[in-house]
Amino acid sequence: MESNQIIVLAIIATSIATYVSRFMGALTSEKVSVRSKIFKWFDCVAYSILAALLGRMLIFPAGVLANSELIIRLIVFFICIALFILSKKNLVLPTMFSAILLGFLTNI
Amino acid sequence: MINSQAFFTGLKSLKGARSPAIPLAACFIALGALLKDAGFNIQQSAASSFFTYALPGQLVMAESLLLGASIVNIFIAVWLVNFRLYPLTVSLFPLLEHKSQPKWKYYLSCHFLAVSSWLIAKDTYKKIISKHRIDFWIGIGIGTWSTAVIMTLIGFLIADLLNKEMLIGLAIINPIYFFCMMIGAMKDLATSISVVLGTILGPIIYLITPEWSLLFAGVIGGSVAFVLREENGK
Q1: Residue B94 is nearest to which of A7, A39, A81, comparing CB atoms?
Q2: Is residue A17 located within the same domain as residue A38?
Q3: Confidence band of A1 (pLDDT split at 50, 70, 90)
């Protein structure tokens, strides 16, 4: 099989594999009441899964971020979280600073 | 069919100091460059973000292709990574439900569900009356999704101008932004415990079972937080 065909098939497979979870979620939602305990459980699980994803992205990253050192990523993380809290929860400042700081520390 | 006021309110969430446009742009520019490096052409790169729109899954696909994995293996790996979207949908869509709204809006707009759109919707849905919340969500979704597709194209086109340090810098923006948003969302005990436990358990369980780490960390951390909330409520 040509590489172009393999890429197209991979995109189709990836799209279906992703949409299945979203669609199943939409179907399940029809039967879940906002006041129910199961909704509150899903809410906690959703926040925890997202935090797990972000923790993993920071400690065991995929892609280009894997080329940076863990200790440098952690330094950038803690400085930027402190900046976020000190700047009264300004989102733009720590996110922009994180890119500059990581680029700078990686280059030293 | 769609309430334009609610739709545009959602779309406008891309503007302002809490805008997810910057981290979305950064990570999808990096993805566009990575897909070019993995042998994708410009149409394939755009199609990947258009039809998938889930960065971790797209990264898994690109890396699996480079390793020569089969299509079935790619499907399973992506399904495992993106299964997180199931609890995310179930924890958001009941808040957007209204009897008067047609089902197709929910079935089509679930495609827009991603970390960025989910966090914005959870943060702001109360400002919109329940009847029009789905239209508000579609506005958020169209805004974040189209940003992702356009930035993938830009990343592909400027890939040769981006050096390694610049790509690393772009890639850190995404986790930092979302961590800040999550910390901002820690307004009650259950959410705070969920976030802290998830952050700790995610990397630890990854060492034992990389494929299932997100699910296990999420279910354990979320269940502990849920039980503590229930006990605290009583």
Answers
A1: A39
A2: no
A3: low
